[in-house]
Amino acid sequence: MRVGLDVGGTKTDAVAVDDATGEVVVRVRRPTRVGPEGVVRTIVDTVHDLAGELGVAVASFASVGVGLPGQVDDRGERVAHAVNLGLERLEVASVVASVLGTPVRVENDVKAAALGAYAIERLDRSMAYLNLGTGVAAGIVVDGDLWRGARGAAGEVGHVSIDPRGPACRCGQRGCIEALVGGGAIAERWGRAAVLPVRDVFDAADAGDPRAVELRDGLARGVAAAVRLLVLTCDVDTVVLGGGLTALRERLTVPVQAALDEGTAASGFLRSLDVPARLRLLPPASPAPAFGAALVGAAATRKAMTHG
Amino acid sequence: MRVGLDVGGTKTDAVAVDDATGEVVVRVRRPTRVGPEGVVRTIVDTVHDLAGELGVAVASFASVGVGLPGQVDDRGERVAHAVNLGLERLEVASVVASVLGTPVRVENDVKAAALGAYAIERLDRSMAYLNLGTGVAAGIVVDGDLWRGARGAAGEVGHVSIDPRGPACRCGQRGCIEALVGGGAIAERWGRAAVLPVRDVFDAADAGDPRAVELRDGLARGVAAAVRLLVLTCDVDTVVLGGGLTALRERLTVPVQAALDEGTAASGFLRSLDVPARLRLLPPASPAPAFGAALVGAAATRKAMTHG
């Protein structure tokens, strides 16, 4: 049995995957505690939850993989700049492994989710997983392996500027895709208190609020640009949309599709790339991020075995 | 000895490469004849020029590789939509092979040039070769192999829009990088008769012509955006600039560098990617495109040998 955890800023989603069948046998969620001790405690407690649900010992788990919203080194040991978790830098793998007594490997949450989406959607060749959440970034998988690039920045489409007169982005540029699409940026620009700011914006847009309509149009334009961008640079076979915003389902995909069609209507070249046909939406509450984390953990033990 | 040809819209550049040393032993140039018969004749005559220079028989060449400005199938046999060569569709490889009696393989000119730049610059890991010519496109090489993507569209950064209010692009969109950077687009927008329109624009900009300054600024902004884009999506280790516009040397790189610095000054995130440090300029009149074509031809024979 292999364990995978997706540690989000507010909640942690975890699965135990059967080695033989590759199926999810049990899944648990618990709120995330932030800060170094809080995050370690959250991971440890969640793994114990899974063991309890299964009635097995934690030590019986072959591996534990953890997806975290931050920069992770390519050896899968350390996380840095995990702002939403209140972590500046933490040796997550070694600390958690010493407590649980199992091999542990960590990965950036979007990259882990990309591996999970690729496996769960049974894809082959190349795929980009575009995460639409508080932030916006993509994870690129080619022939089953993550493509990290020179410095792990591959897929950072959120900070590509598509409009020099666009809204200011927290990264310092103007008109970044994340400034138009990111849940955090939308909430800031909307400025109205709401549990789900983007949903609040979409509701207000449906009610005809002009500023909400403008924000929704910008969001759709930004998502369409990100998808087009991933095709024009990496020419991936499939672009899978995931992340919190996808809970909006058709309310998100219909305007995005319209924005894509607008581009292809204008351009025979874009039409020839058949971008809309490459697009998929991850099902609501998909276990892909946690499942991908379990795959990351499995890679850790394979590595441990092959490299002694 | 292996032969490589870069067939451009006006001239064809060719090299013969020594198998053992990998060095260019002879290089010739001749004007390109357009149309199906003209292109075949140009390739055949140029290969004979090389044989003549070397005092050897054409049949003694191990392979002939040809880079062409058009869509080439991934088996390296056929070219389509080679507008600048007056070719709608041509079985170049088989036709030329039947005349020369040597194995022939064709490749898109930018992709062939990318392979050549990667080899000549002695690069490793990942590189994007950004061609700045009449059109704008990149060729991506990872661990020595071309990355074509799902439909050979990988690296088509020329048609990423970076400004919804930007100039109209021949592809039908607005604000495409090619509309800001491409020699064809610049010439059209400049509208003044000149042998080298972009150089004419730069001269006029130096003389203070406001429209020329605007065009030059847009060009620099577009090149900087393309370089940034290749790092933010593919995170390539190196971006090599090549193509006709690079003949402007510092007159091109200084404003491009300024545009890149502008972005990094605003964004700590961009600064952390160290984009300017990944940038290289191909030397003037580099044999990279023809050399890359020779590598394409070599791949053809390797394939012929391994697959019978």
UniProtKB/TrEMBL annotation, chains A, B:
Q: What is its EC number?
A: 2.7.1.60
Query: Would the keyword Glycosyltransferase turn up in this protein's UniProt record?
Result: no
Leading EC class: transferase
One Gene Ontology term of the molecular function aspect? N-acylmannosamine kinase activity
Question: Does the keyword Kinase feature in the UniProt annotation?
Answer: yes
Signal peptide positions are: none
Pfam families this protein is in?
Answer: ROK
Which keywords does this Swiss-Prot/TrEMBL entry list? Kinase, Transferase
Record's protein name: N-acetylmannosamine kinase
Q: Which InterPro entries match?
A: ATPase_NBD (IPR043129), ROK (IPR000600)
- Return the PANTHER family for the record: BIFUNCTIONAL UDP-N-ACETYLGLUCOSAMINE 2-EPIMERASE_N-ACETYLMANNOSAMINE KINASE, ROK (REPRESSOR, ORF, KINASE) FAMILY
Q: Which family does it belong to?
A: Belongs to the ROK (NagC/XylR) family.
